[in-house]
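From the methods appendix. Each design record in this collection lists the tokenized structure first, followed by the designed amino acid sequence. Records were kept in a plain field format so they could be parsed without special tools. The example shown here is representative of the layout used throughout.

RECORD:
FOLD TOKENS (103 positions):
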């Protein structure tokens, strides 16, 4: 039986697959959050009238702009979380490849 650092290769592969499945679950969660943001933005855009929008004065305009800003911030946070998850996943793969090259 092949070993890596005293640990069977099959166990290392199993651990790697488990870690990757957790990473993919997190990525799926992030993508779902992004989908929800896109749906909300579409709802906001759909709610804007085609001609002469009536925002109920300055207060209504400020409130609408605030909701849009919150949606954009949420979307950008989701993208940042996705990038972090992908970086962690890639870091693990690079580490495993480096360990295999050293053997």
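DESIGN:
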């Amino acid at each position: 039986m092949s070993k890596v650092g005293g640990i069977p290769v099959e166990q290392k592969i199993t651990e790697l697959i488990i870690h990757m499945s957790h990473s993919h679950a997190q990525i799926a969660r992030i993508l779902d959050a992004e989908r929800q943001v896109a749906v909300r933005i579409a709802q906001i855009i759909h709610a804007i009238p085609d001609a002469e929008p009536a925002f109920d004065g300055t207060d209504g305009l400020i409130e609408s702009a605030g909701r849009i800003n919150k949606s954009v911030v949420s979307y950008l946070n989701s993208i940042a979380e996705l990038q972090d998850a992908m970086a962690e996943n890639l870091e693990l793969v690079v580490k495993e490849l480096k360990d295999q090259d050293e053997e």
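APPENDIX NOTE: The longest helix spans residues 57-102.
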